[in-house]
Design brief:
The protein is of the alpha+beta class. Helices cover 36% and strands 22% of the residues. Strands 1, 2, 3, 6, 7, 8, 15, 16 and 17 form a 9-stranded mixed sheet that branches.
Amino acid sequence: MIEKTIAHIEANKEASVDRLKDFLRIESISTDPDCKPAMKRGAEWVHNLFLDCGIESEIVETPGHASVLADTGPAENGGPTILFYGHYDVQPTGDLSLWDSPPFEPTIRDGAIFARGSADDKGQILAHMLAVEAWRKAVGKLPIRVKFLVEGEEEIGSANLEKVVRDHKDRLSCDYVALSDTPKFDMATPAITYGTKGMIYKEIIVSGAKQNLHSGSFGGTLTNPGNALAQIIASLRDGDNRVTIPGFYDDVLPLTDEEKEKMQALPFDEAAYMKGMAVPSLEGEKGYSTLERRWTRPTLDVNGLLGGFTGTGSSTVIPATAMAKVSMRIVPNQDAQKISKAFDNAVLAAAPKGIRIEILTHAMCGAYVSPLGTPGMNAAAKAMEAGFGKAPYFIREGGTLPILPMFKEVLGAESLMMGLCMPNCNAHGPNEFFHVSDLHNGARASAHFINELAQVR
């Protein structure tokens, strides 16, 4: 059966690229109110693809943008159930002058499709949709039950997704969640991401006088909020780039021997990594490798600073207020609530006299890690090798996917992150791209994944 399915994918390569182009022409920018009609078209496009190949599908409305739920129905021989997750909404285009071709006019150059949403996430979720369609059209049925949840709010925080999942818990019940919203390791090598960091996002507002003051007339007589903020931020890390918040590292789990071995075996090129960012050196927490710091160690970073005069030229003022936005990426076993409270206490303890402090919490989410060696993980690895012709690397990710802990809590299912796009695909930036070969390889891998899971009993 798998041979027929793969043959169908191969025979329809050109048509698959055309369909991806159609999908990419839909300006489904979820944050833009003017794109609401396009968002509706995006949901309908996904819904109609499922209906056209005989898969039960429903558009589920939310207070924001709709989700699409699809289900192939029970399989004759049982087996595990897989839920594919993806999103049809995309990021804003940004400065159009930085695009080499219009972001919603898909253009193929050097074997890649350039368009907004090509990699994040339309090209990747379409690969899974095409695989299921191939099973239906080439074989007539699937060997296991396959479900889909394709939402329209991922790029704006998935505000309504948890309610959709909780309200439709029984319909979405599964053994594993599979998603492709993560990258490959490099051009030739696919990757399975088995862990992501959590995040706590804070804003520190330091206030002093009722207005900006002349630094000559008033300097030295009161606490400068800018100076105070710099003092607070500097206190949060030491000379070894370790976070100084009391208890910050208490619950951090060390890597297992297996994880260390896999990480050390990766062909990671530090010089190329440094060159790609155009930085003079790589720095971070003392005692850990670059990959360990990226993927498995908690971090604290300033994301934005504002205060006083920031225009052209000079204006010698003592600012009335100063603000910093700070994010902490936390790792498995760290408690987000505990770290959030410890951060607040540390900031207040470091604050000098003569100012007022306000601390806002904008986001908070735990980390996620999937166990290695599960039947689903093994099936995904075999499938990725069959689809791409090379065994995948197992990696972790420094970014955050808040949906993963939620899927685990509500559905009781582990998530498998099967990366199909390039690490440098320009997601969220100008000239986003997705290689045509990755669309086809991803569809093949997804088809094999379904077949491999059917062998699990």
